[in-house]
Design brief:
This protein has one domain. The protein has 11 helices and no strands. Helix 3 packs across helix 8.
Length: about 240
């Protein structure tokens, strides 16, 4: 453990990229071992995410939670945009099909891919609510530090300069801003909301010079979205 942390300490790039790569990489295994495995793997991925954040916390000094009114308001606004825009534009997978970059999945396969533990374990089952809670907690407390460290601390600055730690988090750079927002947006099924979300979080980093406000806004958005999903059964957001 100490050897790994020392290696990460010697590489600012690894400290910000490795947790993201591992966390996202584990997503590949969701559903690969039967339908129920996508829930168990997500729970395991969340636990690994907690460990990864703990591992790099002393090394990524800009990764510190910071509460502020603007951060909370941005988080709420992004949630409203995410839900409000949803019916009005084609999602990433639909665009890929229209552009001929992928084939449309059969209806049965699409239904099986929906993340809804009530279907897998029975409506109202304890396990179903356990996995819903795990997802809300994971997306609220684990995802923000990992994603913000990768997108806003690493990627934004690395596009500007390979020695990325020499670039101030407060420095507005048009090309890195647009590229980072595009990468963040297109990594989500709701790409349009993702683009707006990425721009808003990047603005918070630029105004404060740290990831703290963006992490808080990200957490507020994800928490509200998780509650909305569980309350309204809007599983397409997961």
């Amino acid at each position: 453990m100490d050897a790994l942390r020392k290696k990460l300490a010697d590489s600012p790039l690894l400290a910000r990229v490795l947790p993201f790569v591992i966390f996202v990489g584990l997503t590949v295994f969701q559903g690969e071992f039967g339908d129920a495995s996508k829930y168990w793997v997500y729970a395991g991925k969340t636990a690994v995410g907690v460990w990864l954040v703990w591992l790099v916390w002393p090394l990524v000094t800009e990764m510190r939670w910071k509460f502020s009114v603007p951060a909370v308001l941005v988080g709420i606004a992004v949630f409203v945009v995410w839900v409000g825009l949803d019916p009005w534009y084609p999602k990433t997978s639909e665009l890929f099909v229209k552009l001929g970059l992928s084939k449309a999945k059969p209806a049965a396969e699409q239904a099986a891919a929906v993340w809804n533990p009530h279907v897998a374990f029975g409506h109202g089952a304890i396990l179903a609510w356990f996995f819903i809670l795990v997802r809300i907690v994971g997306s609220t407390l684990v995802v923000p530090p990992i994603e913000e460290a990768f997108y806003r601390s690493f990627l934004y600055r690395f596009i500007a300069k390979s020695d990325f730690t020499s670039v101030s988090l407060k420095q507005f750079l048009p090309v890195p801003f647009l590229v980072t927002v595009a990468f963040f947006g297109l990594a989500h099924e709701q790409w349009l909301a993702g683009l707006i979300c990425g721009a808003a979080y990047q603005w918070l980093v630029l105004r404060s010079g740290s990831l703290g406000e963006a992490m808080t806004a990200h957490a507020v958005t994800n928490c509200l979205l998780g509650i909305w999903v569980a309350w309204k059964g809007a599983w397409q957001f997961w």
